[in-house]
Amino acid sequence: MSCIFCKIINGEIPSNKVYEDDKVLAFNDINPVAPFHVLVIPKKHYESILDINDNDMEIIAHIHKVINKLVKENGYDKTGFRIINNCGNDGCQEVKHIHYHVLAGKKLDWYDA
Ligand code: 5GP
Ligand code: ZN
Asked: Where is this motif: Histidine triad motif (predicted)?
């Protein structure tokens, strides 16, 4: 499997993990665009939300739960944060393993690219 995030999950590529359980991994983005920039990914490989069907809703709910926990642990429930899921070419999705960016720690600009 050539997927870079699957390699991070199985330890072939190192990462700074901030949360892990049997279904989900969260780690610091290698190229942060905010003081807090974490990627939250399912351990099961899905290319994007287009691969998520009725049987996979639990993992999406679980990811939201993990994000809730991470932002509260870091105090960003008070100041705010942003969740981004890039999808496909126009969404500028570079890594084809579904991931949720969680950005916080500064006033985030709104932009479309
Ligand atoms: P995308 O553009 O696909 O939504 O975001 C992919 C993200 O993965 C980018 O923000 C990029 O910095 C991050 N990324 C790519 N390769 C690695 C890596 O090997 N380690 C970590 N920690 N982040 C990575
Ligand atoms: Zn993968």
From this structure: 97-101
